[in-house]
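>> received
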Amino acid sequence: MKSLQGRLVITFTLIVGCVLAGLGIILSQFFPVYVENSLQLNSIAKSEEIMLIFENSNVILDGTYKDEIIEVLSNDNTGSNFYDLHNQLWKVMLIVLSSALIAMIILSYHFTKRYAQPIDNVTEIAIELAKGNYRARAYEDDTSSTAELSTSINVLARNLQELFKVREMEQERLNTLIENMGSALMMIDRNGQISIVNKAFINQFEFSVDDIQDELFKSVGLPEEFEKFIDDVFLMESPSRKQIALEIQQEIRHKEVYGAPVIGEHGRWLGVVIVMHDISDLIRLEQIRKDFVANVSHELRTPITSIKGFSETLIDGAMKDEKILLSFLEIIYKESNRLQMLIEDLLELSKIEQHGFSVEFSRTSLLEVMSRAAEMTRPRLEIKNMNYISRMKRDVLVDGDMNRLIQVVMNLLTNAITYSHENSSVYLSLHESDTHGIIIIRDEGIGMDKKEIPRIFERFYRIDRARSRNSGGTGLGLAIVKHLIEAHNGRIIVESEPGKGTEFRILLPKHQN
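>> returned
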């Protein structure tokens, strides 16, 4: 029995048992002596009575006879009667002592039950609380002497349960925050072992939690520059911020890394926390902005310079020569048209990129869109002695803006004609899937490398700048195309091979009846 009551009963039983056993041993030692002395005295008394009888009967016995009579009486009394009495006494003592022991055990059980059982209950509840079971409660008995103890342990249990709920809620909030934050987070303890990582960190480096949890940060294969930054934070023991470029999945990604020491109570140094923001898109957008400013400046400067130069030449006296005058005026006219087209495309792109821009959806025939776009670009096609090869067996209806879709197809056909050789063909085809109408435009032009494809939709990006400028384009056509396709909830896919041509595939959601 491990309970307090059981231990008390056993202890009390052992003590009482030892006392009773000692009493029995003492009685067993003194009783034979007492009995023997009593018998001896009894024999002497009887012998004196016998001698008195002989004297009254006028029988005279000398001292020798008297001693023999006393000896005979003593030997007779210490015989079998003495041993029978001794055995009976032992039985009586055993019964009495056993009964006393049993009675004391029963009394001790009932006595300790009143005081020890509530303590045992409180002890069990305390053990449950130590194990984390904060729902356990002690039995409260107002009549018990331990009622105050039971009440106190229950108040403690309720307080611990509330604290656990608050801590659990805060832990869930913290875990949710860590796991769903867009930035990668990693915490390293003072021994250099990774203790916490979030989902963003694992996804960026293609790790699993088991691969890096509780591992040394230098042994998990982090990029060298990233490891060096962590070492610097450990050495300096102060917050640090740095922009680094990391090669992840064969791609250069720009990161802004922030590291700071984690200080516990009493200034104890616990480790470092590293937060890493992906700023690749910001860097890319900043570069695009710089390129845009530079390209706009360049594109505007070229026609303005031409117009200004030829105007100054005419003012200086060249206007007197009619032939030169007409030639210069024609150039000025072309450059002003080019400037007008550039400004119109910039305004158009700005309008499309504005928040809230939308197209007017209606039931639209892709066959009609392609036919009208091909008809409007045919004069440019004929200049290069090219031809269209159409494969449009049946019409496909989509939800879209007719004019905007014609603008998209015209831009793509113009590019196909511009970057194709003379006497070549441009292929037009119309298909459909279960959910989309598909427009395919393919040329036999110069094509492009795969690395160029992701950038062709950037504003003013040109693969062949000299050829693009001479074609009269503004460099904004494909940027406008991409935004208009996205406004239609569609996609545009590009496939190209240098020297063999380029294929544009446009996917637009079909009209739902």
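>> Residues 345 and 476 are 7 Å apart (CA to CA).
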